[in-house]
């Protein structure tokens, strides 16, 4: 596919990096010379120094032949105008806009085909809030991803010392067959799509496909006690922090939000009923201790300063907070934070990449979730009639090496697959795949040409 990306910030840069690694024809447009220089030095893509609101720049970038436009600048207005111009220059292309302003999001119909011609809106902040809330529902997990409206969950759990199945081959887990499936193992930054002969080792991050009603059993298996969430401290009252505080304000969870800006504090205190707003600096050890950080289940550091987020999370953990969730965008930081004791990273960059991928993948893709390291994905797809994956036992399906089927959802039934399971058209499929296996997997999920 030919894809034009407007905006070379962290979000645009990393979408371009991901797509170029998959051999898509990518063009990046930005009016900042330093960002264009960074693109030229690091990525194998075309880069134009221009504004995404320039009709001539869009023409020069090849928009008339493009399959997709992704408008991902920090300005909603620039993104909207870019899509409007693209609609007139190439009405057949797919147009995706990054939008952050809640007022625009409430009036989505104004942004649609009839007016601005936008096909899909992505809002990384909303996605981050959803991710944080999902993690809070399963406190023992390092990662939680919902599929099929939350009826199937992908849970990332770290293997502790003393885990009873360390060193055992997965094929020996006969007593768990039909209840959960190990879909992926992350070991020292390498993602493994496991087969029956693979083993689980200490400190592995294991991704399990679990029915929503089987979560307790999965946690008990890893000797994780299911504890109710009681107390949360949020640091940072930006868009994401405010949205998270607003969501928690409607629950029984005891939550506080710490913000340095007194004006933001005043505005937020007027909106919130239960969440306590504190004007202060969360890098202050005395302040955290005064707010009883030792009893907190989660400290969530989501300010706009990544270095401060990391420092606050480490400080909070050292003072007794059970878990830390940290907002980090820089790719180089994400790989380091887990090694220094931070439990979970949320990132607008990762959220945006996840949102874009479902429109890139061939077949009827419902959602795509990059796994840790981003060289593997969990994909929710619909089984299409006449594709090679339907109406035959799974044992006879030629799944590419590096891909595994984690669950089949048929109506209200959730099936953890076995070799004799048969997929039928319209089944929802949860699939784990390494990046290198995606092209073959796409062929498996796509309708055969003779169908037409």
Describe the structure.
The protein has 452 residues and is of the alpha/beta class. The protein has 4 domains: 2-122, NAD(P)-binding Rossmann-like Domain (Rossmann fold, 3-Layer(aba) Sandwich), CATH 3.40.50; 148-221, Regulator of K+ conductance, C-terminal domain (Alpha-Beta Plaits), CATH 3.30.70.1450; 231-346, Rossmann fold (3-Layer(aba) Sandwich), CATH 3.40.50.720; 351-451, Regulator of K+ conductance, C-terminal domain (Alpha-Beta Plaits), CATH 3.30.70.1450. 31% of the residues lie in helices and 26% in strands. The chain is built from 15 helices and 22 strands. It has helices at residues 10-21, 33-42, 55-60, 76-89, 102-106, 108-111, 124-137, 215-221, 239-248, 262-271, 285-290, 306-318, 331-337, 348-360, 438-445, and strands at 2-6, 25-30, 46-49, 68-71, 94-98, 120-122, 143-147, 152-158, 180-187, 190-192, 205-211, 231-235, 254-259, 276-279, 298-301, 323-327, 344-346, 364-370, 376-382, 403-410, 413-415, 428-434. Helix 1 crosses helix 14, helix 7 (124-137) packs across helix 9 and helix 7 crosses helix 14.
CATH class of the largest domain: Alpha Beta
The description of the largest β-sheet is:
6 strands, parallel
Q: What value does the average pLDDT take?
A: 87
Q: Estimate the helix proportion, in percent.
A: 25-40%
Distance between the termini: 22 Å
Form type: globular
Let me know the CATH homologous superfamily of the largest domain.
NAD(P)-binding Rossmann-like Domain
């Amino acid at each position: 596919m030919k894809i034009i990306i407007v905006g070379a910030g962290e979000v645009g840069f990393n979408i371009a990096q991901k797509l170029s690694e998959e051999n898509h024809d990518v063009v990046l447009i930005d009016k900042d010379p330093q960002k264009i220089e960074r693109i030229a030095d690091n990525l194998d893509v075309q880069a134009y120094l221009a504004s995404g609101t320039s009709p001539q720049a869009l023409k020069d970038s090849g928009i008339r032949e493009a399959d997709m436009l992704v408008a991902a600048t920090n300005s909603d207005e620039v993104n909207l105008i870019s899509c409007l111009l693209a609609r007139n220059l190439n009405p057949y292309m797919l147009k995706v806009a990054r939008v952050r302003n809640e007022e625009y999001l409430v009036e989505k119909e104004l942004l649609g085909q009839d007016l601005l011609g936008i096909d899909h809106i992505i809002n990384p902040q909303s996605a981050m809030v959803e991710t944080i809330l999902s993690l809070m529902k399963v406190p023992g997990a390092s990662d939680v991803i919902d599929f099929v409206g939350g009826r199937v969950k992908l849970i990332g759990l770290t293997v502790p010392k003393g885990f009873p199945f360390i060193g055992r081959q997965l094929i020996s887990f006969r007593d768990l067959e039909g209840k959960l499936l190990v879909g992926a193992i992350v070991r020292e930054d390498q993602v493994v799509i496991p087969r029956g002969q693979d083993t689980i080792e200490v400190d592995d991050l294991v991704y399990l496909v679990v029915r929503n009603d089987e979560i307790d059993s999965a946690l008990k298996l890893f000797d994780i006690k299911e504890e109710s969430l009681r107390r949360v401290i949020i640091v940072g009252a930006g868009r994401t922090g405010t949205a998270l505080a607003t969501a928690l304000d409607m629950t029984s969870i005891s939550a506080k939000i710490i913000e340095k800006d007194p004006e933001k504090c005043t505005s937020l205190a007027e909106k919130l009923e239960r969440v306590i707003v504190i004007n202060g600096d969360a890098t202050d050890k005395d302040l955290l201790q005064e707010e009883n950080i030792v009893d907190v289940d989660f400290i969530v550091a989501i300010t706009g300063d990544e270095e401060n987020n990391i420092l606050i999370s480490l400080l909070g953990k050292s003072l007794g907070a059970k878990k830390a969730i940290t907002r980090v965008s820089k790719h180089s930081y994400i790989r380091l934070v887990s090694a220094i004791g931070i439990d979970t990273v949320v990132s607008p960059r990762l959220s945006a990449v996840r949102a874009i991928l479902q429109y890139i993948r061939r077949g009827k893709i419902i959602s795509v979730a990059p796994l840790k390291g981003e060289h593997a994905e969990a994909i929710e797809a619909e089984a299409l009639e006449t594709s090679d994956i339907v109406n035959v036992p799974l044992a006879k399906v030629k799944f590419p090496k590096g891909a595994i089927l984690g669950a089949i959802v048929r109506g209200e039934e959730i099936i953890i697959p076995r070799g004799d399971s048969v997929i039928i058209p319209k089944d929802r499929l949860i699939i784990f795949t390494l990046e290198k296996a995606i092209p073959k997997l796409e062929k498996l999920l796509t309708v055969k040409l003779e169908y037409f």
